[in-house]
Automatic annotation (TrEMBL):
Official protein name in the record: Acetate kinase
Gene from which this protein is expressed: ackA
PANTHER family assigned: ACETATE KINASE
Cofactor stoichiometry and binding remark: Mg(2+). Can also accept Mn(2+).
GO biological process, alphabetically ordered: acetate metabolic process; acetyl-CoA biosynthetic process
Pathway participation: Metabolic intermediate biosynthesis; acetyl-CoA biosynthesis; acetyl-CoA from acetate: step 1/2
Catalytic activity entry: acetate + ATP = acetyl phosphate + ADP
Positions annotated to bind ATP: 16, 198-202, 273-275, 321-325
The protein's assembly and partners: Homodimer.
Enzyme Commission number(s): 2.7.2.1
Catalytic residue positions: 139 (proton donor/acceptor)
Domain of life: Bacteria
Its biological purpose: Catalyzes the formation of acetyl phosphate from acetate and ATP. Can also catalyze the reverse reaction.
Binding residues annotated for substrate, in chain numbering: 83
Amino acid sequence: MSTSVLVINCGSSSIKYALVSDRREDRIYGLAENLGSAEARIKGITFGGQPLELSIPYADHEKALETVLNRLSQYRPQAIGHRVVHGGSLTKAERLTPEIIDRIRAATPLAPLHNPAHLIGIDATMRLFPDLPQVAVFDTAFHQTMPAHAYRYAVPKFLYTEHNVRRYGFHGTSHAYVSNRAVQLSEHMEKGGWLSAHLGNGSSTCAIWNGQSVDTSMGLTPLEGIVMGTRSGDVDPSIHSFLANNLGWGIEKIDKMLNSESGLLGLSALSNDMRTLIEASEQGNEDATLAIEVFCYRLAKSLAGISCGLPRVDGLIFTGGIGENSAYIREKTMSYLPHFAFELSKEKNNELKRGTEGRIDGGTGPQIWVIPTDEEGRIAQETRTVVDHLTAQDSTAAVAAV
Ligand code: AMP
């Protein structure tokens, strides 16, 4: 296998990993889950596409990483790339140094569920592999190009200047990957305006002008924006005082309700899974039908809204589990966007095979693409860029010293 990068995404009780090399077919990937419990295990795909299932009872993050890395050491990864959700004001991928780790820790209040888990993984891999270059790639970094009028909230200025309250945006690696890929696929459109809809269990939209994010639907946290699997997306912030005053709810209960019990699950009272909702709707379940309708309408509204950040709309990209797989959701969403001259080809939309990329517009208006996202591939690519840059700097310094 050619030079490879090990990509790690640590959650509170799970670790996703992927060994990314030049050929996508060679990718080795998996998930260590239920960490810390008797059911801890690794499930994945090994070289050549063979399935792997390994029980690692009571393994913690370090033990699980050690197991994964021992199995992969024969492939000699060139570096490790860590997905980190919140990079605060960091604008690009960075080599992990004590200073960068401190900055990830400092951003913890902004991503209390994610950053502590990433730090556990970083700590473990730094101890296990002190000689391998390690890089943090941030979900927020791509959106650091947003102008102030897109990232500031209309709240007192000191909350921004003293407490970093602003819109950050997430899913940056996905929006960056698919928009870059769309430019490659569409040719001659290096400069231009793209709208990107990442629709999975977590969902967001992004407006990209000449390769840079100019607006996005998520904000201070990944709760803002469009309807998601269990997250509400935008609500009137007064819902907090309404629920506190009328139902006696505390902040934690409200937070949990908005993050874990709302969205498609909350609206349908059935499921956060779009497939289940489409099936239920076909069988006449009205709550499922409404959940789908709200999802598509609010998505279209968000795309129309962030299009204000673009001088021109040249194309739209659907990605994520729902965006890549559901022709029905794509068509319904486009039906709420009649005023942008988009012309969806129903035929191409319906014929697009799952998991493949393809263009689904009729050829007259802005392009419409379905592009399977590849966050691991993008993280590996950014990691390589950082490592190559550092190597080049080292050689220049060595030559200067001679
Ligand atoms: P992700 O978080 O990107 O893995 O996406 C998960 C979401 O994709 C879930 O809501 C799934 O129901 C949805 N999904 C996957 N396949 C399909 C499909 N064929 N039709 C509709 N939704 C799908």
